[in-house]
Amino acid sequence: MKTLLSFGHGYSAQALARILPRDWRVIGTTRSEDKAAALLAAGTEPRIWPGADLTPALDAATHLLISAAPDADGDPVLRELRSEIAARAGQFEWVGYLSTTGVYGDHNGAWVDETAPLTPATARGQARVRAEADWATLGLPLHIFRLAGIYGPGRGPFAKVRNGTARRIIKPGQVFSRTHVDDIAQVLLASINQPNPGRAYNVCDDDPAPPEDVIGHAAQLLGLPIPPAEDFDTAEMTPMARSFYAESKKVSNERIKSELGVVLKYPDYRAGLSALLALEERDE
């Protein structure tokens, strides 16, 4: 039986689980009892981890997906299970690591692809570069997926626009890439079906855009006033929020199309936001 063991079975991993063939077994780790109950209800076998003995799950796994983010001490999965995973390297058909386009750092709004140097400007990006390299040392059939800003059901801008907390921060020349969670899921499934160990893939849409354009379009879709522009240099922001503006780049997704045959469901934020709003209205 094909069995996916998913570490940190969160938003993106759950989207993949929903589109896997019905005969797959999915085991997902979580830290929360409440989240474990929700995973079980969705058809995933939950494991509270750290805590649970994952030896039986590792023995059964044919595929691994790692979504857990590195912390100050490195990758949490490798910290606990490096030797156990390495000992089973020949057992796995596919291993996927969810990284971030933040590994490329700042390119002043220029295009980058998977061959670009990894020069992150933030501590989060630097941790991801180290984690990517760490996973690559184990001799696994590793595939790295560098995700742009993720949005989707429950993670769109509409709530903030409605409640008046959305902000249009203007930093000239700033662009971000983004991706709908359903497109992440289909990229992962395409890779599972066409393994190419050692490959990295950017996962993003076709239209890198200034963040203020996305907020403005969301307001237009809702028929609400567009939030006023705020200058980045003088806007009150937390250090974390300000750090997201430290890097500007346009991320190319050509490889997922040419090698994996992916046709994006949501090729730009306009298509994605329209679909999210239609879903909200249908579920009301």
List the helices and strands and how they pair.
Elements: E1 3-7, H1 11-19, E2 25-30, H2 33-41, E3 45-48, H3 55-60, E4 63-66, H4 76-87, E5 94-100, E6 111-112, H5 123-135, E7 142-147, E8 149-151, H6 158-163, E9 168-170, E10 178-180, H7 181-193, E11 200-203, H8 211-222, E12 229-231, H9 239-243, E13 250-251, H10 254-258, H11 269-283
Parallel strand pairs: 1-2, 1-4, 2-3, 4-5, 5-7, 6-13, 7-11, 8-10, 9-12
Describe this structure in words.
The protein has 284 residues and is an alpha/beta fold. It has a domain of 191 residues: 3-Layer(aba) Sandwich (Rossmann fold). Helix content is 37%, strand content 18%. The protein contains eleven helices and 13 strands. The strands form four sheets. The chain has a seven-stranded parallel β-sheet with strand order 3-2-1-4-5-7-11, with helices on both faces. It has a two-stranded parallel ribbon with strand order 6-13. α1 links the parallel β1 and β2. The chain is globular and about 55 Å long. The termini are far apart. This is NAD dependent epimerase/dehydratase family protein. Keywords: NAD.
